[in-house]
Amino acid sequence: MTDVQNLWTGVAIACLLYLVKWKTDPLKSIPAVGGSSLPLLSFIGAINFLVNSKRLLQEGYKKYYGSVFKVPLLEEWVLVVSGSKMVEELRKRPDDELSFSEGVEDSMQIRYTFGPESNDDPYHVDVIKEKLTRSVPAILPDVIDELTLAVPQHIPAKSDEWLEIQVMPTMQQIVARASNRVFVGLPVCRDQEFLDLAVSFTIDIVKDKTLVKLAPRFLKPLVGRLSNHVRGTLHKAIPRLKPIIDERRQLMEKFGDDWPDKPNDMLQWIMDIARTRDYSDEAIVRRILLINFAAIHTSSNTVTHALYHLAERPEYLKPLREEIKSVVAEEGWTKNAMGRMWKLDSFMKESQRYNGIGLGSLTRKALKDVTLHDGTFIPRGSIVMAASDATHHDDSNYADADVFDPFRFSRMREADGEGTKHQFVNTTLEYIAFGHGKHACPGRFFAANELKSLLAVIILNYDLKLGGDGSRPPNMYLGFAVIPAPKGKVLFKKREVEAY
Q1: What percent of the chain has pLDDT over 70?
Q2: What's the pLDDT at 75?
Q3: Is the pLDDT of residue 382 over 70?
Q4: Which runs of E-coded beta strand occur in 354-436?
């Protein structure tokens, strides 16, 4: 047999094995959207899904409502559920069947890019759920104090002319600064080098995890070590935080668990817990950066979406401004005040419903074979999620769901018995931007108050409009990601307002 014959025999055997693998794949019975599930053709479907994901998820939601369909990514198939019964099943399934933490790990690949510690012992999540959420009334004045300084510095508009601002990077800087007033306190929250590292950390995670996800499992540890954007940012951030960490350590050694003027911030909460775990500078800064990633990425995107809507429809500024002024006059800049701003709360929730944090939510990874109530078989290792964007644009869930209606939820709250159900932070089977159930975003209570405060400061102090033809900059969709126009610009003009 010649070398050429050997080569073609090898190719034939490989193709046969691949075909057998496909024929016996348990996912084969689940319908595909966006392309064929036939061998090799699924890669073409993955490219199609990457650039047409919003439309394809809508199609799958409508065609397979109440059941499951699959969409191709370059590295794997993702199973997508639709309908309230399926969302409820995702919520109720125990973590030893459909795991939230392993779903996040599969998406972010933190174990390989940043080390396994934060996934194996995610105590920072408990800190967010317990300490951060309970402390919102006490820490919100510090957030607002930082916003009153940061907003005019980053939006230095004058009262006699319009100033064009690139919105997304500006909001990233403002959110980073306000958030870190609570995370690491003064003066580090104003350290521009640290803030730039905190903002760039999001991009670093995306770069590194993309490479790791494409690698075969046996190569993931090596690729994770070689793709060093995340670790590089960590090592640059340690010197920015080390002086304050050392100072806190000395106080803890001297006074123990409590002392006069003990800081009430995320860094201190992390250090209090880390004393009995990994207490190194690297371990502490690692948690701070992960919390920054969660806060800055979603919050800056959310407020950017909202500002694009406000600038497109500036007639909404007046009713929002009137509500904010009235409530602040009575309550001051407090958590109670934020809770009474129903129109502002509705505006934020409607913007998030209309745009979304992502196109999917309630991401889970199957740790064992699971059969759903409709008989769909989910094999171990599969990634499952709910079609959040399609859910939010379903007319059976929301009237005129494809219309941006800023006071949709405030009108709902005015109905008897609907005082809290339709708040920005509340989740339901029909509103799953934050997820739903025990694994819903733990930081949403802090984030909602921070973002409403930021938007309130902007609305009181500026007029807004869009340039050009006045149309809102379009969102970008890349796979499951929703990105407000990164280079979109809004025109700001300073208003003369009374002191507040």
Answers
A1: 93
A2: 85
A3: yes
A4: 361-366, 370-371, 377-378, 383-386
Q: Give the Å distances, CA to CA, from 403 to 353, 394, 398, 423, 485.
A: 11, 11, 10, 19, 19
CB 201 within 8 A of CB 292: yes
Q: Determine the 3-state secondary structure of 275 from DSSP.
A: coil
Mean of per-residue pLDDT scores for the chain: 92
Mean pLDDT of 93-102: 96
The tokens describing 32, both together, are 């595909």
CA distances from 471 to 308, 369, 494 (A): 9, 48, 22
Distances (CA, A) of 435 to 88, 301, 438, 450: 11, 17, 9, 19
When pLDDT is averaged across residues 416-441 and rounded to a whole number, the result is 91
Q: Which helix (H) or strand (E) holds 175?
A: helix 167-183
383-386: strand order across its sheet = 68-72, 77-81, 383-386, 361-366, 98-99
Cα torsion angle, 392, 393, 399, 403, sign: positive
Cα separation, 11 vs 14, in Å, equals 5
C-alpha span between 282 and 272 (Å, rounded): 15
User: Both tokens of residue 90?
Assistant: 């995702």
Tokens of 245: 């960490």
pLDDT (tens digit, 9 = 90+) per residue, 247-262? 999 999 999 889 999 9
